[in-house]
């Protein structure tokens, strides 16, 4: 599109000294020619470079606009993530929400903007009646630029305050922790303070992880089982006019806690109303002499170490007098008792002799294997270390054999019993859901054969012994009763009991351990005045198991079917020589 | 006189400028929209959280149990009510051999119509709920 250049002669802009060559352009010679060539080359190279640059820009432009590219790093924004200050949710093993953080308006005042502090306070008091009018008036007149009036209002309160239209009152959104299930998981989930710091339960135990936000924490507990256990424990506590109660359901094959109840409990949504007794987690922080429940560990030790056998036995005719104590039996048979009978009639004399025969060292070793000698590893911080005697005298060996003179938490007992019946492998207790299909950490503590014997013995207790109120449920329950007199100072109180029953089901192939303990129950007409574990806790465990069985998918069985009778039969070498079948 | 080349380039400059501003305003508009949608997403998300918490609150086992007692006249299943298919005895061949029972006479007229029945049952529930 260039204009044609006119001949040089006619060019008005030609330099004056220019004289056209008379006979056409003469070829330049010498250095002039050379420098012209060099310039020419340079021009060509530069032009080529520019062309290349424009070509690149063109290609890129076409590429970006027409084909679109993914390699352009746009500022990545993800509106789906929540602000970092939100605590993670807590859910149960089926994803049911147990704790969540909601954005809640909190009311604050810029008191410099408040025109009439008194009238503003009076109006605020009308819509928020729980505020102290004088206190609010003082705050509004304080002259501070930022002062909290009330934290975490309900939506209705927010609307009411907004409607007042008082200048200087403003809202700021804060994260408020809510516990939709209220009391039900009080001791499992725990609670936080207003600033979102975990003060108890999982909120405290896993505070760091929760603060990081992100995916919810999935616990091992099951809301349905928790409700059943809570309900049954509560019923037993109120029926026997007890001061408290506790219950735990554990999966024997994984150590997962499926339910955990400590009564009395509290509503974590209204933590300021909770009493100290209600805040106390009896399951993990309570140390109790569990009584005859501990005979499970004594017998497991004796059988596993071959101190005695299922056919062996000890003379329980006379009480034992040792060091100012007298050890006697509550269900005295006054004769030689075989090992199954000692367990079934819960003979203290027999258990004491059994432990003495094994020796204190073996006793300590097995107690340690069952995790009863030191505080367990657990997700909660409210954890009690067991109380064991500093010096292990012969009398300690005897009393510990039947559950006195040593205090442990119900959590530890449930974990130990799980190991005794699951085939002999100790799985640490956990409140976190274990991934399915993955091997669970565990340590063998007793031989599988010993564990099978323990199942038979536990069934015997329910079939013919002290736990017979847990019979005839349609499910195969095994278990052991325990009734401990509570210690006050240095004395045992005869009428203040801790009555427990630890149930295992189905006993022919254990899957769950259910432990319920009732603190200071009082016998009623229905129990003929008895307040022992067999009368108080065994029916509660039976009812719990009946209600939970269909949820966990265990079918009822005929307790008297021949196969089951045979699989759980125990030969009882009775004096008369007859055999007793435990089914 | 404007030369054609100059005119062309001037037009090109004006054209690209116009298009560029158009694009710019479009981007600004879309960014505003994006911010608005982001805000909506955040609000919806929060609403979902509130609803989830409310659902969890309303489905408290204690409340469900209370409602079930009031409105459904159901009781827990007894273990004796549960069984397996294997437990049902096989058909007795002797029973097959015997002559079949006479077919029951049609009773369609005496039977209440389904709607009436369901209304009656509903009414019963409502009375039961009071």
In percent terms, what proportion of residues of chain B is strand? under 5%
| Rg over C-alpha atoms of chain B, rounded to the nearest angstrom | 38 Å
The helix fraction of chain A, in percent, is: 25-40%
What structural class results from the helix and strand content of chain B? Answer: mainly alpha
Shape of chain B: elongated
Number of DSSP-assigned strands of chain B: 0
Computed CA radius of gyration of chain A, to the nearest angstrom: 40 Å
CATH H level of the largest domain in chain A: which superfamily?
Answer: DD-peptidase/beta-lactamase superfamily
Chain oligomer state: heterodimer
Q: DSSP helix count of chain A?
A: 19
Distance between the termini of chain A: 110 Å
Distance between the termini of chain B: 98 Å
Unreliable spans of chain B are: 108-130
- CATH architecture type of the largest domain in chain A: 3-Layer(aba) Sandwich
Structural class of chain A: alpha+beta
Count of β-strands of chain A:
18
Number of H/I helices of chain B: 4
Order of helices and strands of chain B: HHHH
According to CATH, what is the topology of the largest domain in chain A?
Beta-lactamase
Largest sheet of chain A: 5 strands, mixed
Strand content of chain A: 15-25%
